Amino acid sequence: MSISSLRALVIVALLAASFTAQAGERDQLNACQTLVDRTTHSQNPEPDTPEIARCRQIIKEWTLRDSRMSVDEKGQPLR
Asked: Rounded to whole angstroms, how far apart are CA atoms 17 and 62?
């Protein structure tokens, strides 16, 4: 095995490991909705942290994306 093919193999393995470590998009959306709901219903509302602001942006993007979709999560046509 040549050095260049070994390097390519290592790069591919590192990329594959990094992709599996990330949560799925739907899981990320659900986690963000939970976080925003918790902060919204809190007795002592705090100013938005960067994490909450990022979650609000993710929820906004999903809302816009879902409004353009003609199928549901399972690929069934919307009625």
From this structure: 26
